[in-house]
Structure formats: C-alpha cells, structure tokens
C-alpha cells in the first residue's frame, strides 16, 4: 500500500469528502489531491496535522507499520522516569517498585488520589526512605552516560516540540 492509498482509505473510513478533509487540515484541494495520487509528499508539519485529524501515527500514515497508534503515548516526565528507572541497579528498581505498589495500594484503599504536579516530583517529595535505600531511590542520581543522554534527546525530539513544553 502507498501513502496515497492509505490516505484515501483513512479519509473515506472517517467519512470525509476530499473537500471537507482539505478544510479540516487547512490544505489547498489540488495539493491534497496530489498526496492521494502519490504525486507529491507532504511536509512534516502537514503530515502531523493529517495524522492528528485521522487519529493515526505518522508511521502508520507512511505505511511503515500496521499499528494505527502506539499503545502508549509518553509525556516528557514519563520518558524521564523510564530512562532513570533503566539506570537503577536491581535494588533501586526493587525500591521504586515497592514504593509504587505502596502508593497505589494507599490510593486504591480510599486513602486519596495520587498527587499530581505540573512541576514534576514536587508532589511526592514528602516520601521518607530509609538511609539504607540506594542513593538513586533517595533522590540522588549518578551522572548520565553520553549514550543515555543521546537516547533521552532522541525520545524528546520524537515526542515533544518546543511549543508543547511547560513554561517555568
């Protein structure tokens, strides 16, 4: 299947005429018609708009995968948590898992909602871990390796634009 064929399939599946879809994604009719005919390729920003309107990933739209949407969309904080978790030793991971299980149990037992803060970890700084807990579990972190830094930057570029970041 080509990009143009996938575009036609998705547009029709969602019930849009070409004209309606062009208005929705703010594109000239002839430009869009050329996309469907595989005579022209959209710029990245246009591709993202089309994917958002059709509720699919750009990879699906470009026929790079048969999965319409990734199962999980991570925000910047979630990506950072995963990268930090991967850097922990087995004891640090066990501490994080135990703390998470404890917090979930507390919330599920009616103890309250999980605190959420736009500032990141501000809402959970009240946790008091024993001195025997690994440094990383008590808030200390070791320097990030160059490889991990490159991976983190790559993930950030994939999922976040400068416009979407919180203003501090």
TrEMBL record:
Would I find Transcription regulation among this entry's keywords?
no
Region feature Disordered, mapped onto this chain: 138-168
Alphabetically list the UniProt keywords.
DNA-binding
Signal sequence range: none
Q: What top-level branch of life does the organism fall under?
A: Bacteria
Composition-biased stretches (Basic and acidic residues): 151-168
Task: List the Gene3D superfamilies.
Answer: lambda repressor-like DNA-binding domains
User: Does the entry feature the keyword Nucleotidyltransferase, yes or no?
Assistant: no
> Which intervals hold domain HTH cro/C1-type?
7-61
Q: Cross-referenced PROSITE patterns, in alphabetical order?
A: HTH_CROC1 (PS50943)
InterPro entries tied to this protein:
Cro/C1-type_HTH, Lambda_DNA-bd_dom_sf
Q: Name one GO molecular function term.
A: DNA binding
Query: What is the protein name given in its UniProt record?
Result: Helix-turn-helix transcriptional regulator
Question: What organism is this sequence from?
Answer: Zongyangia hominis
């Amino acid at each position: 299947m080509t990009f143009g064929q996938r575009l036609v399939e998705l547009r029709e599946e969602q019930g849009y005429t070409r004209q309606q879809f062009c208005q929705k994604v703010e594109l000239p009719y002839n430009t869009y018609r050329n996309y469907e005919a595989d005579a022209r390729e959209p710029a990245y920003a246009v591709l993202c708009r089309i994917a958002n309107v059709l509720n699919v990933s750009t990879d699906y739209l470009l026929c790079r995968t048969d999965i319409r949407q990734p199962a999980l969309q991570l925000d910047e904080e979630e990506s950072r948590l995963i990268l930090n978790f991967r850097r922990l030793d087995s004891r640090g991971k066990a501490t994080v898992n135990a703390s998470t299980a404890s917090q979930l149990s507390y919330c599920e037992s009616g103890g309250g909602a999980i605190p959420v803060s736009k500032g990141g970890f501000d809402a959970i700084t009240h946790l008091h871990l024993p001195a025997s807990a690994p440094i990383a579990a008590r808030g200390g972190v070791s320097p990030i390796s160059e490889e991990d830094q490159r991976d983190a930057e790559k993930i950030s570029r994939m999922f976040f634009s400068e416009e979407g970041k919180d203003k501090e």
